[in-house]
Amino acid sequence: MCGIVGYLGPLNPKEVILQGLKKLEYRGYDSSGVAIFDHGHVRRVRAEGKLSHLEEKLKSQSFDGHLGIGHTRWATHGGPTERNAHPHQAGSISLVHNGIIENFSEIRRQLIDKGIQLTSDTDSEVVAHLIWAEYQECRDLLQSVLRVLPKLRGAFSILAISETEPDHLVAFKDGPPLIVGLSEDETFVVSDVQASMAYTRKYIYLEDRQVVSISGKQVKVFSRDGTEIPFTSVDLHWTQDRVEKKGFSHFMLKEICEQPLSVASSLAPHLSHDRTQVRLNRVGFSRVPNELGTLDAQEDWKKTLACFRDSRRILIVACGTSFYAAQVAKYYIEAIAGLPTEIDVASEFRYRSPVISPQTLFVTISQSGETADTLAALRLAKEKGALTLSLCNVENSTIDREAHGHLYLNCGPEIGVASTKAFTSSLVMVHLLALALGKAHGHLRPEKEAEHIEALCALPSQIEGVLGYDKYFSQAAIELCRFKGFLYLGRGVNFPIAMEGALKLKELAYYHAEGYAAGEMKHGPLALIDGSMAVIVVAPQDSLFEKTLSNLEEARARGGQIISVGTGDDLTLKGLSARYLQIPKAHWATNPVIAIVPLQLLAFHVAQSLGNDVDQPRNLAKSVTVE
Fold first, then answer.
1. Is there a contact between 263 and 462 (Cβ–Cβ < 8 Å)?
2. pTM listed for this prediction
3. What is the set of active-site residues?
């Protein structure tokens, strides 16, 4: 949620930190601030609202130090005001914090009982006071942090500096990501690599309860008990131009238009050379003993098939848009692989008493790989003995590191808060997963496998065709602004697409929209239908097409204004609809990937016509790294 940027090096910290914070704006925030060394002291500047307000305050200010920390805050404890903005200070200690300190109230009472005056309403400030109390005894920032770490409960990542140690950064985490960027003469501590990609591609991903100490060019990592431990850095292969807008008005529009490429990139590593067979690449199930060391691609694939063969039940857990991708996966896996498949939302799953056996393949889907509820669900499944598989877009994210096996979306950075290309790439990956499970269990004939792959390989050009109608979608969106509510309908594998389409409109346009199974219209939703209700239906020509038409007739008879997404020049569907959005004829299993694109464009254009912030919708953040 919040964004952290720390810098130690020869460049101007103000500029490096500000540019880094701008890269993290997509995470959502309501205030920001910096603390930078200047003439032997730490000078703090904070501002409520947009980052531009902080930038304006800093415009005329200069700093002679080479160390600083910065932060964009998403309000949890305490309102979105300047007094609650980070960095927080106590004595010589300044720190920035992402997450929630669960025992904050208890610590706060203890501090007040000692006569300490708190200047904010946040849970973050109490940590600064705890570190300052220890620092007054030992005069060592690292040791102070190590003493405080056992006193904290919750999910947090924290970066601290001391005014008396002008070349020293100390950071630690338990939950939300915290990453150290390494360069020859400078070091970065960030919540997301995008904040420092202009300077380095080499990173250390901190594990929970690890502490990193950065003094000059020296970087050391310690366990929670203060024991120095070896660390491994990884090289990230994203390029800076992949996180820029490239001439598009919004990141979201750019990411919608990138979907032909992102779908192709998701698909490419997992097909045979002749594009007739699925061979999942780099899954690397770590729970299965391997006496040969690192496996080549062929051996890794055999190992993956063996693991899948042992799985008798599939359980997929995710949140938000990823949850709708999981619902599509259920249709795929049950139809293609013949395996019982259950779907659960992570925030509910983790607080139940789920029945999981070692024969369960537990799958998580998370664009960021840092979603707090999904991570907790993964850990619970591992405790119960399940084999776990992650589908992530960010390699070396926490979920990616902790799962037994891994599949990557390969769609590149997604900046817009409302997910688009990560969703379509997730649909491609769960389709491939279903094919692999079908192969492992002997449920997929070679000719059917080739048919599915042919359909998948056609997707990039089919999506390109839909994108060509963007102007038509923008015209349709103008009419949508007059409706009081929106009912999105779909049947079968397209039912989750209706729910995802409704979510996009809610996220971006702030309208009430609801996704519904079309066959459930008579069980309540028909009461909502009148001339001011827009009914948006996903109805490509498939085995359920005729039944969906019957549901539309019911809505139309009651005055519902129908906007339909259908296959080709469908005269019947056109005749029922006030607006008809055409998609190419496709395989039943790839229809969802194509059908979501016009719904993404509709939501984008409605929001834009209302003047809403498309890339950063109100009250939302890209990565939900705390509950």
1. no
2. 0.80
3. 2, 622
